[in-house]
Each structure stands twice: as structure tokens, then as C-alpha cells.
Design brief:
3-stranded antiparallel beta sheet; 3 helices; about 35% helix
Length: about 130
């Protein structure tokens, strides 16, 4: 069985006419021919500030005042006046703050001070506490 195709079954585009594909919903074009505007919002993640820790020096009856001043200058970058002031506060009140740092830095400073004091045979105590 053969089938024949007639001219009326085939539609040829007319000269000068451009056929456009059918428009899909959300294709970015509106019916008036101008593009629609979409707003994309990007949320910026908020980073949490790290917890801070106070590094404290404790008073004892054996560590010389000059050694404490030297420790404060060496490990906490204090000048002689500031170091002397902190050392006298420790001497009179039993405890003094050397600085406030993030956990890792505070832990490192405490370890450095304690190792340095032991190396020089002083019982100086240095601790950290959460602020």
C-alpha cells in the first residue's frame, strides 16, 4: 500500500514571514517583547566571633619582680612602664591581667611563660580564663 502526499498536506512558510517557536512560561520574555527582571538574593553567612580568654599572672613569694617585668615585656610586648604597673598590681592584689586573646594564642602565651619560668627555676604561675 502506498500513500501519496498531496500539496495541501505540506505547508511551506510564506516568503518574508519568520516563524517563532512557541513561548514557554518563565522564558524571561514578557508578552510585550521586553525582558522581565528577576532579583536573585544571596545571603551572606555570618561568622561568629571567637571566644576571648584573659591571660593572668599569679603572685608568689619567690619570683623576683624584675623577672615578672621581663616576662611581661618579652611575651606580652609591654613597655617597661606598663609591665611594672601590671607587676605591681599582681604584687598587691595577688593576680594581674597580661592580655586578652583568642583561645589558641592565650594557650600559647601561658605555655611560653610557664616554660620560661621553669627554665629559670621560678615558680611563677600563669593561667587563662574565659572572658
Amino acid at each position: 500500500m502506498s500513500q501519496s502526499i498531496s500539496r495541501s498536506d505540506v505547508t511551506a512558510p510564506s516568503a518574508g514571514r519568520i516563524d517563532h517557536p512557541p513561548r514557554m512560561a518563565g522564558d524571561g520574555r514578557s508578552g510585550s517583547g521586553s525582558p522581565t527582571t528577576s532579583v536573585i538574593t544571596k545571603t551572606k553567612p555570618r561568622t561568629k566571633r571567637p571566644n576571648l580568654y584573659r591571660v593572668l599572672i599569679l603572685n608568689d613569694d619567690y619570683t623576683p619582680m624584675e623577672f615578672v617585668v621581663h616576662v611581661l615585656e618579652k611575651f606580652f610586648n609591654m613597655d617597661v612602664e606598663a609591665a611594672t604597673k601590671v607587676m605591681l598590681h599582681v604584687h598587691h592584689h595577688g593576680i594581674g591581667e597580661c592580655g586578652v586573646f583568642t583561645y589558641e594564642i592565650a594557650e600559647t602565651k601561658v605555655t611560653q611563660v610557664m616554660d620560661f619560668a621553669r627554665k629559670h627555676q621560678h615558680p611563677l604561675q600563669c593561667v587563662m580564663e574565659k572572658k
